[in-house]
Amino acid sequence: MVAGGTGRLLCSLLVPALFLSGALCLCVAVLLWGTRLWLQARKRRLGPVGRDRQRPVLVAFFHPYCNAGGGGERVLWCAIRTLQKKYKNITCVVYTGDRDATGEEIVEGAFRRFNIKLTHPVKFVFLEKRYLVEASLYPHFTLLGQSLGSVFLGWEALLKCVPDIYIDSMGYAFTLPLFKYLGGCRVGCYVHYPTISTDMLSVVRNQDTRFNNAAFITNNPLISKFKLVYYYLFAFLYGLVGSCSDVVMVNSSWTLNHILSIWRTGACTSVVYPPCDVQTFLDIPLEEEKSTAECSIVSVSQFRPEKDHPLQIRAFAKLLKEKRPEQQPSLKLILIGGCRNQQDEERVNNLKRLCEELGVSGSVMFRVNIPFEELKKHLAEATIGLHTMWNEHFGIGVVECMAAGTVILAHNSGGPKLDIVVPYEGRITGFLAENEDNYAEKMAYILSLSPEKRLEIRENARRSVYRFSDRHFEETFLLSESQAR
User: Fold this and answer.
1) Residue 247 and residue 481 in contact, taking contact as beta carbons nearer than 8 Å
2) Is it true that the peptide bond before 329 is cis, omega within 30 degrees of 0?
3) Which residues, other chains included, contact 8 with Cβ-Cβ below 8 Å and sequence gap of 6+?
4) Which listed residue, 30, 158, 392, 455, has the most CB atoms within 10 A of its CB?
5) pLDDT at 291
6) How far apart are the C-alpha atoms of 79 and 99, rounded to whole Å?
7) Who has greater pLDDT, 44 or 275?
8) Is the pLDDT of residue 441 over 60?
């Protein structure tokens, strides 16, 4: 009797519950549809009108740190220049959080750093809530926090300007469904590095200590299992939002493999190698080295944790320690990179303190946010180009070092291993390493080679980099972008 009464009670509650759930879903659907209609009306009312009274096509790039000096920013400005050269009736929009600079200063900075000159003006939409995607705001659950923060930042961007085509050029995939379903835009993305990858899942699963997997986590099996579950759930959400994209461009075969495994967007995904200003560096005369009193080792990368600058400094210190005093020339390590924010600046200060601890301050030089011509000068004078990021998605800095005529020493993983530092016409184009000892040994070996042998490697590396030119990027980018129009 009791069981039967309980069953009838549950049945009597089921119908109202289903009705309420359906009503709530309907309300949400109506709200979302109403929001979309409101945004479209706002777009028609506030959208710019061209000289012929026709509204130009708005192509918007979501790039909150567009005034930084990294490879991602070079892709942004080259993409905009490519669209401006190809299409007349478009207006390029950049959503940015760089409110400390004017639009003119940002464009001038792009020319100064990357030698990229735009043919038409760009509309900048300045965002006030960029702090929502700062990693410092989320000491725990950083990936989820930044991703959800990007949704709110994307909503601010959408309220300020509703484009026709939306391109996420900085890896904020959680903004894609926002612009597609609420903004009514065609959406695409250029993926430099997947927010989460199967390699990251493997690191947590195997309890390996990395910059994004602290020792206190790897030493505790329970916390590791919890983090693994969190990563799998995040990967599922990441796959859902990524699958919303109409066009997916990735920068390397390494990134392609990871995106296909998580997003499953094979039909609309293609590899578009990032534009490397190889011609500018190829203009540097490649001559046999002359005897000098100083030999420089140059690193070109933003000052971010994943770039692993401490490994460069420790390997360099080990090289100096093992170098005999009578060996000439003297060695200098030059770290060149961009700082996006105060966190990056603090990271540079920490690196300087590491140099002091290791006793190599006098042999290490930091050059932050330098002009393009100064970058070119340092590369022209360098003997070795140094790169240490594990699973670098591509490695524009690696290509630039090779084009400039340095002997490259890159990390034995990711893009450098699969796409760049690979044999060309059966001859080596550079060297790969994995740890501090390995890097120190390879640097010592490169320095021990005769100038003639180094020249042979440098010449072969130069011949191999033409496939990463601006022209090749323009062709493949336009081919992919045309699918979103």
Assistant:
1) yes
2) yes
3) none
4) 392
5) 59
6) 22
7) 275
8) yes
Inter-residue contact 424 to 464 (CB < 8 Å):
yes
Which residues are paired to 299 by β-bridges? 335, 386
User: What does the pLDDT look like over 95-116, one tens digit per residue?
Assistant: 999 999 999 999 999 998 888 9
- Cα-trace Rg, the chain: 25
What pLDDT, on the 0 to 100 scale, is given for residue 325? 54
More confident residue, 20 or 427: 427
| Distance of alpha carbon 272 from alpha carbon 484, whole angstroms | 15
Question: Taking a C-beta distance cutoff of 8 angstroms, is the pair 164, 143 a contact?
Answer: no
pTM comes to 0.76
User: Using an 8 Å Cβ cutoff, are 406 and 385 in contact?
Assistant: yes
Determine the residue type at 206.
N
Of the candidates 96, 81, 61, 57, the residue with the CA atom closest to the CA atom of residue 167: 61
- For the chain, helix, strand, coil in percent to 5 are 55, 15, 30
172 contacts 62 by C-beta, under 8 angstroms: yes
pLDDT on residue 393: 85
The C-alpha atoms of residue 463 and residue 427 are separated, in whole angstroms, by: 11
Kindly write down the DSSP assignment for every residue of 278-321, as one continuous string.
HHHHHTS---PPPP-SEEEEEEE--S-GGG-HHHHHHHHHHHHH
Instruction: Indicate the DSSP class of residue 416.
Output: I
Q: What is the pLDDT of residues 462-477, one digit of tens each?
A: 999 988 988 889 999 9
Chain centre to alpha carbon of residue 164 = 24
> Is the pLDDT score of 213 beyond 90?
no
Phi-psi region of 166 (alpha: psi -120 to 50; beta: other; left: phi over 0): beta
- The rounded mean pLDDT for the chain is 88
pLDDT band at 169; cut points 50, 70, 90: very high
- Structure-model confidence comparison of residues 3 and 422, the more confident one: 422
Least confident of 56-65, 98-107, 319-328: 319-328
**Mapping DSSP to helix (H, G, I), strand (E, B) and coil, where does residue 237 land?**
helix
Strand order in the sheet with 186-191: 123-126, 90-96, 57-62, 165-168, 186-191, 247-250, 269-271
Burial of 262 (0-12, 13-18, 19+ CB in 10 A): buried
Partners of 271 in beta bridges:
250
Burial of 375 from C-beta contacts in 10 A (0-12 / 13-18 / 19+): buried
**Cα–Cα separations (whole angstroms), residue 4 to 7, 13, 172:** 5, 14, 53
* Spatial separation of the C-alpha atoms in residues 300 and 307, rounded to whole Å: 10
